[in-house]
Amino acid sequence: MSNRILLVEDDATLSMIISETLQRDGFEVLTAYDGEDGLRQFSRHGADLIVADVMMPRMDGFEMGRKIRQVNREVPLLFLTAKSEIDDIVEGFELGGNDYLKKPFKMLELIVRIKALLRRNIRQPESLFTIGRYTLNMATQSLDYPGKSSLSLTLIEAKLLKELILNVGQTVEASTLMLLIWQRDDPYSRNSLHGFVHKLRHYLRHDPAISILNQRGIGYMLTPP
């Protein structure tokens, strides 16, 4: 069975080009032209991956993504954006986006990114990881600490914390983390990585023995408790 892609793009010409390209590559494609229509399509038919423009009428791609993440934390979200501001890109990742592609782009790059996201989304066995009194559950993307409410993490936050836990006491190069999460090492990803590390430090604040050290110019190290 072919993977089903939900394409949400208000530019009818671009939508047709992307849809035809994906279909020639063996994908099943559903199309929507604004965020509200995208939500309806996803609710009715589901999807294995969503490709969504950011700037759309009625409901933009980010708002659609937020609403989808309220009911589904796993389906990969790839945003198409004409914006290049760091804050906009970080916002997309923070609401649960998995990747972004700046317009204009080559269709081959879109295909490559879609296939990479689908491979990365293959379900893995449930895994629990501990650091001090914290427990990271990758199956539910949650972080637990005794006496505190379970904290829901984004997929990127969970992957980043898992990698740091697996290498506790060792410096993990920033480039390694960026390639693991976004499959690229560029200034946008580097700034996003720094923002996510800052969030993880806040999440781990209940145990003063645990910290994430910034090894300037190299990467990050999660200290053992």
Short description:
The protein has helices at residues 12-24, 35-45, 61-71, 86-94, 107-120, 155-166, 174-182, 187-203; strands at residues 4-8, 28-32, 49-53, 77-81, 99-102, 128-131, 134-137, 142-144, 151-152, 171-173, 212-215, 219-222. It is α/β, with parallel strands linked by helices and 225 residues long.
Largest sheet: 5 strands, parallel
Fold-level CATH name of the largest domain: Rossmann fold
* Amino-to-carboxy terminus distance: 47 Å
**Overall tally of domains:** 2
Large-scale geometry: elongated
Secondary structural class = alpha/beta
The percent range for strand residues is 15-25%
Q: What's the tally of helices?
A: 8
Query: What's the order of the H and E elements?
Result: EHEHEHEHEHEEEEHEHHEE
Strand arrangement, major sheet: 2-1-3-4-5
Mean pLDDT: 88
CATH class of the largest domain: Alpha Beta
**Rg over CA atoms:** 18 Å
Relevant CATH superfamily of the largest domain: Response regulator
Strand tally: 12
pLDDT under 50 segments (min length 5)?
A: none
| CATH architecture annotation of the largest domain | 3-Layer(aba) Sandwich
Helix content: 40-55%
